[in-house]
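Why do we care about 3D structure at all? Because function follows from shape, and shape follows, mostly, from sequence. That is the central idea of this module. The next example makes it concrete: a single protein chain, its amino acid sequence, and then its structure expressed as tokens.
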Amino acid sequence: MKEDCIVIDAPLLFESKLNQICDFVIGIIAKEEEKIERICKRDGISKEMAKKRLSIQMSEEELQKRADYMIVNDGNMKMLEEKIKNIWDENKQ
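And the structure:
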């Protein structure tokens, strides 16, 4: 049974080819405005800078094609953690 886990939080996971060392990939998507607000709050940057960062990332459509699992982050942190835990539990064998 797998008990150890390393999480890579990389917006450019596929572009950097880090996905090649992953057992599975979870793509997390959210509404554009929510993403911008979260980035601004987390990093203390302007909306324009947040939009620029998002513009270099893979589209949600392409992410859905490449990821093994998709999560819509439309709730609070506890809800997101529960969704991730369910995927982890499914894969820890």
